[in-house]
Design goal:
Blueprint lengths: L1 H24 L2 H10 L1 H27 L4 H24 L6 H32 L1
Helix pairs in contact: 1-2, 1-3, 4-5
Length: 132
């Protein structure tokens, strides 16, 4: 329910921001320039992208793993904190190359790590269950 509420709010904010830009500039290209140069507009766009990434992650998790066991979910949360901390430290090293492509690649890296951990936990569960 919280994910649905966050999605609806984010979609509403994005619609308002894009509508406002188009209302002010009346053409596509000036509207895009306005959106990319306005910090509040970019913050809303980044929020929308973050929500979309979370939704895609949930969808892929449901497709590939179905319902997660509580132990798998706990391991995922535990490992995620370390991965996010490592990523933030890496951001300080690569702060000169900080652009949307860089963020997208690090997001992909976090997704791959998370799905690797889930697959590892699932294989451990199946292999331990098989021998008992």
């Amino acid at each position: 329910m919280k994910a649905l509420l966050a999605t609806v709010i984010s979609l509403g904010l994005t619609t308002v921001v894009i509508g406002n830009a188009y209302y002010q500039k009346k053409q596509f290209y000036p509207s895009i320039v306005y959106l990319t140069n306005s910090n509040p507009s970019m913050a809303v766009m980044y929020l929308q992208a973050f929500i979309l990434v979370l939704l895609v992650g949930k969808l892929l998790r449901k497709i590939f793993f179905g319902q997660l066991r509580p132990a798998e979910f706990e391991h995922l949360i535990e490992r995620s904190w370390y991965a996010i901390t490592e990523t933030c430290l890496a951001f300080t090293v690569f702060r000169d190359d900080f652009n949307p492509k860089f963020i997208a690649l690090f997001t992909l890296l976090l997704f791959l790590k998370a799905f690797h951990w889930l697959a590892e936990d699932r294989v451990d569960y199946v292999s331990n269950d098989f021998y008992y």
